UniProtKB/TrEMBL annotation:
It holds the Pfam family Aldedh. CDD domains: ALDH (cd07078). Residues 5-450 form the Aldehyde dehydrogenase domain. Gene3D superfamilies: Aldehyde Dehydrogenase, Chain A, domain 1, Aldehyde Dehydrogenase, Chain A, domain 2. Belongs to the aldehyde dehydrogenase family. The active site is at 234. It comes from Streptomyces musisoli. InterPro entries: Ald_DH/histidinol_DH (IPR016161), Ald_DH_C (IPR016163), Ald_DH_CS_CYS (IPR016160), Ald_DH_CS_GLU (IPR029510), Ald_DH_N (IPR016162), Aldehyde_DH_dom (IPR015590). This is Aldehyde dehydrogenase. Keywords: Oxidoreductase.
Length: 459
């Protein structure tokens, strides 16, 4: 990646460090021009009958589907995702388009009776939405912010992360190919400090959907506050994996609960909390499981874990794992590329940095707990509250612990976090607002009530 004063983004393949593409970086003026084009296009888009918008979005889904291999290939090259994951991501974008298209047809207002008239309540589109995406899941997160907004009649200006602009640019081209009106969905790659801020500060951006680090999210929220601009924040995580003694240990300790996407996953279960009676068994199981993880070329179908996104991210992960730290370790290639082995730290304090801060790499901590209360206390012992898993065969305990853990997305006897048809978002410093699910479109509307008098003229 180049420094922020340059006018281009150099996209590196994180598995090889080769330059994959060079993309112009948007200036503040470029962002303003994109917003002006979007504002004009949005009026035509919003005026379409919902069924016509839905038809175009379904066609967009078909075009995405036809380009699955191409989109997946881009995600492999620019983000280092394994091919299997990247194909799933293209499929997720397609499925969300279909889901959002259905929502467009069901976005209704209401009618509330009143003496002497009627209240008619409308759900109006907001206008132009600014979507700011991170590098860890470039395609799905661009989709989650953008597609429900489009379905509700908004235009979208999407700013992808500096390191991963390619799938966003291609999705915007595919939207045109599918017949969406020009400028309704634009991708504007650029640096956060210029293009990102320009989008947040622009008075004609009606709402910001920001996904990224909690540090940047705070700044985005402050800037939105100056304009009283609504904002959705999808931020960091440090999610617990709570494993009780009666659990199916092999399923509960699946290392991909924290290694998926090389651990660069906001929902990664990076705090493995294990009931004391099975703690030693868990340690043994994890040691074997890490040794079996195939780390390497993400384009190879057999690979289960690829590289980290950048040298900067590699340095960050290394800073949490000194060479002499007590740990279970797998293996990783030496380089070129940004590789780090699957790692479980075994000598950490529950309130120490490695156990409470988001590392965003293939690193988890293993901690014992004594009983249910202790598990909940440990689970809630970070500023984050995004996800978590609870493993037990005791239904009562599963329900009690799910109620006590402060997180927006929990799973019982599963590590699944995201389904496009259920709401997703964080508690505490993991975020604000929800994406996906049945209310995804409403989040991109404003409610207007019009009272219509039925009184006749005074006789
Ligand atoms: P980041 O905060 O550095 O950047 C995210 C985006 O914000 C990028 O597009 C960047 O260019 C832009 N940006 C940077 N500074 C900005 C500013 N001042 N104003 C406006 N935009 C700015 O985050 P990242 O390192 O790209 O992503 C990793 C983080 O994202 C992790 O913390 C991860 O947990 C989080 N994340 C959260 C979710 C979720 O749904 N909760 C999903 C994925 C990732």
């Amino acid at each position: 990646m180049t420094d922020p004063h340059e006018h281009e983004l150099r996209v590196l393949n994180p598995a090889t460090e080769e330059v994959v593409a060079t993309v112009p970086a948007a200036s503040e003026e470029d962002v303003a021009a994109a917003v002006a084009r979007a504002a004009r296009a949005q009026r035509t888009w919003a005026a379409l009958a919902p069924a016509d918008r839905a038809r175009l979005l379904r066609r967009f889904a078909d075009v995405v589907d036809a380009h699955t291999e191409e989109l997946a290939g881009l995600e492999v090259r620019e983000a280092g995702h394994t091919l299997g994951n990247a194909r799933w991501e293209a499929g997720n974008a397609r499925d969300l388009l279909l889901y959002a298209a259905g929502g467009a047809e069901r976005l209704l207002g209401s009618q509330i009776p009143a003496p002497g008239g009627w209240n008619v309540t409308f759900q109006e589109p907001l206008g132009v939405i600014g979507v700011i995406a991170p590098w860890n899941f470039p395609m799905p997160i661009a989709a989650w912010g953008s597609f429900p907004a489009l379905a509700a009649g908004n235009a979208v200006v999407l700013k992808p992360a500096e390191t991963t602009p390619l799938t966003a640019l291609r999705l915007a081209e595919l939207a045109l190919e599918a017949g969406l009106p020009e400028h309704v969905f634009q991708a504007v790659p650029g640096y956060g400090a210029t293009a990102g801020r320009a989008l947040v500060d622009h008075p004609d951006i009606a709402k910001i959907v920001f996904t990224g680090s909690t540090r940047t999210g705070r700044e985005v929220m402050e800037r939105c506050a100056r304009l009283v601009k609504p904002v959705t924040l999808e931020l960091g995580g440090k999610s617990p994996n709570i494993v009780f003694a009666d659990a199916d240990l092999e399923a509960a300790l699946d290392p991909f609960s924290f290694l998926d996407n090389s651990g660069q996953d906001c929902c990664a279960r990076t705090r493995i909390l294990v009931h004391e009676p099975v703690f030693e068994a868990a340690r043994e199981f994890l040691a074997g499981a890490l040794a079996d993880v195939v780390v390497g070329d993400p384009a190879d179908e057999k690979t289960r874990m690829g590289p980290l996104i950048s040298r900067q991210q590699l340095d960050r992960v290394r800073s949490y794992v000194p060479d002499d730290a007590p740990a279970l370790r797998g293996t990783a290639p030496d380089g070129p590329g940004f590789w780090f082995p699957p790692t479980v730290l075994t000598g950490e304090r529950p309130d120490g940095p490695a156990a409470t801060e988001e590392i965003f790499g293939p690193v988890a901590v293993l901690l014992p707990f004594t009983d249910e209360q202790d598990a909940v206390r440990l689970a809630n012992g970070t500023p984050y509250g995004l996800s978590g898993s609870i493993w037990t065969r005791d239904v009562g305990r599963a329900l009690r612990v799910s109620q006590a853990v402060q997180a927006g997305n929990l799973s019982v006897n599963s590590h699944s976090s995201v389904r496009y048809w259920t709401p997703f978002g964080g508690f505490k410093q993991s975020g604000l607002g929800r994406e996906l699910g049945p209310d995804a479109l409403t989040a991109f509307t404003r409610t207007k009530n019009v009272f219509i008098s039925t009184e006749g003229p005074a006789q």
